[in-house]
Amino acid sequence: MRNQVDYFSEEWLRSGLKVKTMRGGLYTGLAQASIGVIALVSVPIMARLLQPADFGMVAMVTVFTGFAAMFVDAGFSMATIQQPRITHQQVSNLFWITAGLGVLIAALVCLLSPAIALFYREPRLIPIAIALSTSFVLSGLTVQHQALLRRAMRFKAITVVQVTCYILSHVIAIAVAWRYRTYWALVVLPVSAAFLRMLVTWMVSGWKPSMPRRVAGMRELVHFGANLTGFSFVNYFARYADNLLIGWWWGQVPLGFYERGYKLMMAPLAQINAPLMNVVVPALSRVSSEPAKYREAYFRAVGLFQVVSCPLMAFVAVTAPWIVDVLFGPRWAEVGPILRWLAIAGFVQPISNSLGWLYISQGRTRDMMKWGLVGCSLIVLSFLVGLPWGPVGVARAYALMVIFVVVPLGYWYAGHKGPVNAVDLAWLTVLAVLYALPTVLVSALVLYRFPCLSSGAGIALSGFGSIIASGLVVVGTNSGRRFVTDTAKLLYDAVNPPLRRSRSVPTSPPKQ
Known about the structure:
Helix 4 packs across helix 10 (218-249), helix 11 packs parallel to helix 13 and helix 14 packs across helix 16. The chain has helices at 10-14, 17-49, 52-73, 76-82, 88-120, 125-140, 143-151, 155-180, 184-205, 218-249, 252-286, 291-328, 335-346, 349-361, 365-386, 390-415, 422-449, 455-474, 478-495. The protein is built from 19 helices and no strands. It folds into 2 domains: 1-216, no CATH class; 258-497, no CATH class. By secondary structure, it is mostly helical. The two termini are 24 Å apart. The radius of gyration is 23 Å and the shape is globular. The longest helix is centred in the middle third of the chain and has 38 residues, at 291-328.
């Protein structure tokens, strides 16, 4: 599995770029599809083996551990990926920095675990926080190896790592949940995943760091990482302040309902957005000085994203009660209205998430940081407004704030510079509505015309009708036809490897 790769040769990294990009899209899609299928199996199993309070208990701690986790990476993985030239010693220095940060953050979480328990008035959170902190040490030892794999666009190897670790960690967690029926299964899941990811990534990458020493260029790398970490810092509150507030005000059971709804809404979006970003940002960076090519590449990437995601979010919003009943069972019925409002907010996620692609590829990290401060403040304000009405009130206020305030302002600020302007972004939103409208109409018709259908039958009927209706709209638009064409090319590349070998990347670095 260890191909001979020169992670630091610019000539080697640029060779076969088109083929690597196409195959990267294919392998990324396969990985996320596999993970999505596994999640559809594992999530309902865990929900039936454990109680809502178990999920709420762990969610209370992950509000803090998730915040701490971003300081382990500190933007240094993206620094390694994005730099046109970087040396083995520079990456080695970054490795030791992230390893040290992992140990430091783990120690801080352990020291602060009594404060977390005091905040929620729940002493059982102390051992949970200490156990989860071990994942920071393991992640710190993995960051740069993962970054090098992405830098070299070794998406096949990345797919192997992701799917293998995801399967094994969920098998371990389900086994613990089945045997002990305890929230500790939810703690075992991320810790085992971090350990397996470290082990397999080191084996696959084949890269070994050297001892740290002073070299030129480190200050620029640290500044790059600091800018991205600053944005992640403020953006974190917009993502997790809702969990913090609901857990503090309403307790662990309502938080468990909200957490399940949010995870269910985010699962498909996260499986598409993050991997697509890993492929798209480097491509956009290479054509940032050519506005016409930049616009074409951006519109094509966003088109691929929204053709799938927008109808899916519309389907989830309409059929939320059925989906919750099938996946979680009747005792989780309170998740239905929460999921519905969160899916309405998720409808605009494909375009709003892509704004980050614009900021990073254009080198506008300072603008990204400024917008993060504004967007974070508005979203946290919506949580505070909706909090007295419970988890449903928080989800409703969030959806309305995102759609009518945050997204329009985000379009304006991101589009006031660069090849893509606010009008372009608004037009993409119109296309998103066009893609989703058939799904809304068909699903709503089934839901209200056939109220006696079982949840499973309702999902099957509305899903089948939505696919046909949305498919007709997709093939009637330019971006939809591009989606079909690009997908066909990826599949053709997968099933006809001999035709591609003559243009594939070399298995050894070029001779110097």
